[in-house]
């Protein structure tokens, strides 16, 4: 699952984020430890810790001293909001701009999206 396309610590953070959004890691659930990530992905524990600490800094995880890291209560909602904004910027804005250039109206665009999802 780990590849060379981006830094490993970012991939670890994204794995945890995806698990939070999909419900694999619920609010208040304990996150695997840095050592567990390190052993499973055969990476340096410091690299795994960097990914986890990034999520702590973002307020998505918190530490219970002596126990481990846990998902914050509002993490799923916050992640969905962040991802929706990113989705809008990366996909919807360019899509609608291109549709406008091509003279594709809203109804036609919606039809294209609906028929495209049937494929």
TrEMBL record:
Residues 6-74 form the HTH gntR-type domain. SMART domains: HTH_GNTR (SM00345). CDD domains: WHTH_GntR. InterPro entries: Tscrpt_reg_HTH_GntR, WH-like_DNA-bd_sf, WH_DNA-bd_sf. The keyword Transcription regulation applies. The keyword Zinc does not apply. Pfam families: GntR. Keywords: DNA-binding, Transcription, Transcription regulation. SUPFAM superfamilies: Winged helix' DNA-binding domain. This is GntR-family transcriptional regulator.
């Amino acid at each position: 699952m780990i590849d060379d396309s981006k830094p490993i610590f970012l991939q670890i953070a994204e794995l945890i984020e995806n698990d939070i959004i999909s419900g694999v890691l619920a609010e208040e659930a304990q996150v695997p430890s840095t050592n567990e990530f390190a052993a499973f992905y055969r990476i340096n524990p410091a690299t795994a810790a960097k990914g986890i600490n990034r999520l702590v800094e973002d307020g998505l995880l918190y530490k219970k001293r002596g126990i481990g890291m846990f998902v914050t209560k509002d993490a799923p909602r916050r992640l969905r909001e962040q991802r929706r904004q990113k989705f809008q910027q990366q996909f919807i804005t360019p899509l609608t701009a291109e549709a406008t250039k091509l003279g594709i109206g809203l109804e036609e665009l919606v039809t294209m999206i609906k028929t495209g999802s049937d494929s």
